[in-house]
Model the fold of this input.
Amino acid sequence: MSALARTAFHRLLLPLAALPLAVLAQTTAAPGRIVITAPRAPVPLNATHADAGTLGAQRAAGGDTAGLLRSTPGVSLYGAGGASSLPAIHGLADDRLRIKVDGMDLMASCPNHMNPPLSYLDPALLGAIEVYAGITPVSVGGDSIGGSIVATTPAPQFAAAGEPPLVKGRLAAYARSNNGALGASLAASYATETFRLGYHGARSRAGNHRAGGDFKASTETGRPGHLLPLDEVGSSAYDTRNHVLDAALRSADHLVELKLGYQDVPEQLYPNQRMDMLGNTQRRVNLRWLGRFDWGTLDARGYREKVEHAMDFGPDRRYWYGTLSGAGLPCAPLGAAPNSCAAGMPMLTDSRTEGATLAATLALGEHDTLRLGGEWQHYRLDDFWPASGGGMWPGSFLNIADGSRKRSALYAEWEGRPAAQWTALLGARHERVHSDAGPVQGYSTAAGAPGSQVADAARFNAQDRARRDGHWDLTALLRHQPADSLDIEFGVARKVRAPNLYERYTWSTWAMAATMNNFVGDGNGYVGNPDLRPETAHTLSATFDWHAADRRWFLRATPYITRVSDYVDAERCTQALLPGSACPATSTVSDQFVVLRYANQSARLYGIDLSGRLPLADGAAGRFALDAVVNLTDGKNRRTGDALYNIMPLNARLTLTHKTGGWDSALEVVLVAAKDEVSGVRNEIRTAGHGLVNLRTGHQWQRLRVDIGIDNLMDRLYALPLGGAYVGQGRTMSINGLPWGTAVPGMGRSVHVAASLTF
Ligand SMILES: [Cu+2]
Done:
């Protein structure tokens, strides 16, 4: 165990040892139950649901909640920080998806989207997660063109009538060998028949991970007196702390829930961004009322979120070596090249979100349900970079000032059975999005300030920046069950998303500033475009599901095609596009990082998700089965013919599972094809195909669960196909101060152990 791991181990586990033993000694009352439950959301065939029971082994050893979706059909993951990957569904990621945390539509408040919604839930805090891959019913999400992800902390449980108070808890910890990751979590709750109070907290911490095989980092860097070992992936460490306090009251027909969330991230480093998160604090309040009436249920929610986000250079960027000296010398004082310390460049982002939702579910007769709802949200954003050195002074650089995005939506959705063996769902949603941003300025307003700050700010400030968009979303699903062993579902949807504030209102063409505005991790610089129109997607999808009555075996296929008009892609920034900017006269380079501007184009995505299970044997030696998931996605820009950025190549996950007694084991093979279709405009890096083998086993006793596993058993060196460009160490502030062309490597061999105790 490394020194870091040891320190973390003590800091994490010692406070837990001080837990009141009285809590542990309580005898468990009868199992809790929820008297009033939220009405069932519509569930398309290709939606997947995972809860505490099914997440068991997967969530045992890591701090990345989005990472739990890695084996979900249709889902791929953009690499980012170690605890904040960005899910993509059918090739559409980030703000193109609707991601809800406890009913709140949260947004990343960072020019690199370092704090996406799922990063506010440690895997240990997750109660359930649902993925709507493909057609999303209008009641599940708007202002998005792809699928939806609905993540929730555990639903409140109360003591049964006439039973003594219910005291429950869970204590869990894990360790991972490769990056010295350590995590611990605690959940404790007390509930009577009508009242409940609970706390749920988790900490996850890891050092940089090591690649498999012989990864050679592009530049020698290191902390003082310590060069990064050649197989270490710079800027991949993290340390996250999440807390949720909840209180709930119920009567026979009403439930009131209050959830207070607090997150503190002292450090999350980014191998594919030029900055590191050196502080993220989120405070959230979420109040919900659920009422049951003769006619149906009413679900009302009000929430508030405040985020303070800070970036600067982490240790692997702060200390860099100007020459490949090979000597482990500490960096010289500031500015003393060639062995120098980067000066630092603070970047701060503050946001406030207020929102309210109201949803009514009306039971119309035996089979028909009508859902009516309204949503309102106001998001405010300030993104500013205080003065530092090296031309970045004397004032603050206002990247987005007084940014505002207001949404309001109304929807209606009917679900019913038009005939025996047929189920239908029809929905319409109207949404308005108003966005705006105030005037800006660069670090300096003096003539001749670097990077055309003065001219760019003047051009931006002269424009009318308020934008009003109105969207219509329409969804239809039709399911037929011609036989007990076959379900078929057809779906069609029109979905619209308004551009986010960073896409519309970042304004500087200075390469240094533009590279800081990048939420895809490709190492390039991005400039916003206030004239972007909303993206409109039309999707056609079907799901065929053949299965045994008890789903002992199944084969499911979901082909889909989506056409997106006004797809927000990017074009090279040049003088022809933005005269008087800092962009070059022409830009045709194919082997460097470049500056791009967001532009409406059009796109087409198609593909198929396949998943299935085949039972192999069931006898004295236990039950053996083979699970398989295969994903194929293709994405093209229809205007330029270019491939879309970050489309996961053909991939398969084959898992041989074995269950006997309390044992649950798996041998998993992950196969990923080479990524040859790349986005030319972004100089996207090609990645080679790879195969990985993972092994895991776990045992569940009555209250104790222990999991152990080895990932990347063969210690293969492989590039993450959606991990972006490796810019994790060295001089990242200069756009091409680092060599172009290295993809971020995945983790080498790693052993993990996890244990959890419920009481
Ligand atoms: Cu950030």
Summary: The longest strand covers residues 595-619. The radius of gyration is 26 Å. Residues 110, 112, 114, 277, 309, 311 surround copper (II) ion (CB under 6 Å).
